[in-house]
Amino acid sequence: MKFFTKKSELPAEIAARVPPGQYLTEKWPVLHYGSVPRFDPRTWDFRVFGKVLNEFKLSWDEFRKLAETTVVADMHCVTTWSRLDQRWEGIPFAKIVELAKPLPDAKFVIAHSEQGFTANTPIEFCLRDDCLIALRANGEELTPEHGAPARLVVPRLYAWKSAKWLRGIEFRSTDAPGFWEKNGYHNRGDPWKEERYWGD
């Protein structure tokens, strides 16, 4: 397959899985803003807080002991590439919900990443069984460029919502647009509705 394949050039059953305005790729392009953070397992921790009954913080060793799951899902980038059948392995978001016990008024999930980056997502997308915190992709540990050691994966939204270098999850009753949303990207980011930018 070419680096990018137009939707019109794909078999119908594959084309049906590619949202409007997207090209299919077998590559996994690297896109991010700023430098790639360094990971130190001795100092890394993961915090869950906000509108929950149980706030908690886990060390890297504690985080790795959480039960894992596997999700196979398509990945769609706002820059118009799509990658089908991406295999993710990691902590199901349902486990975070189980431990934190969000309050009834928790309507939004804010992903907190290294270097102060955040991404906001309506909670219903995170409560689906395909949402997880990935540690591995396609059978291999995540590389630093792809968000190691952990990244949120929200397959039903554009990939910028799948925040790299994840360090915490905040549950909120009110929305809080993150870095990309404050810089012109759509607040929700549904690829099937082409919600790429503010005004779409």
Structure summarized in a few sentences:
The mean pLDDT is 94. With 200 residues, the protein is of the alpha+beta class.
Would you spell out the secondary-structure blueprint of this structure?
Elements: H1 12-15, E1 23-24, E2 45-50, E3 56-59, H2 60-64, E4 69-76, E5 81-92, H3 93-100, E6 108-113, E7 118-122, H4 123-126, E8 132-137, E9 140-141, E10 151-153, E11 166-172, H5 179-182
Parallel strand pairs: 1-5, 2-11
Antiparallel strand pairs: 2-3, 4-5, 5-8, 6-7, 6-11, 8-9, 8-10
Description:
The chain is of the alpha+beta class and about 200 residues long. It has five helices and eleven strands. It has one domain: Sulfite Oxidase, Chain A, domain 2 (Alpha-Beta Complex). It has helices at about 10-15, 60-65, 95-100, 125, 180; strands spanning about 25, 45-50, 55-60, 70-75, 80-90, 110-115, 120, 130-135, 140, 150-155, 165-170. β8 (about 130-135) and β9 form a beta hairpin. It is globular, with a radius of gyration of 17 Å. The relative contact order is 0.19. The mean pLDDT is about 95.
What is the CATH class designation? Alpha Beta
- Uncertain spans: none
The amount of beta strand, in percent, is 25-35%
* Range of helix content: 10-25%
Q: Count the DSSP helices.
A: 5
The helix/strand class is alpha+beta
Radius of gyration: 17 Å
Core attributes:
200 residues; globular; single chain; alpha+beta; Sulfite Oxidase, Chain A, domain 2; 6-stranded mixed β-sheet; 5-stranded mixed β-sheet
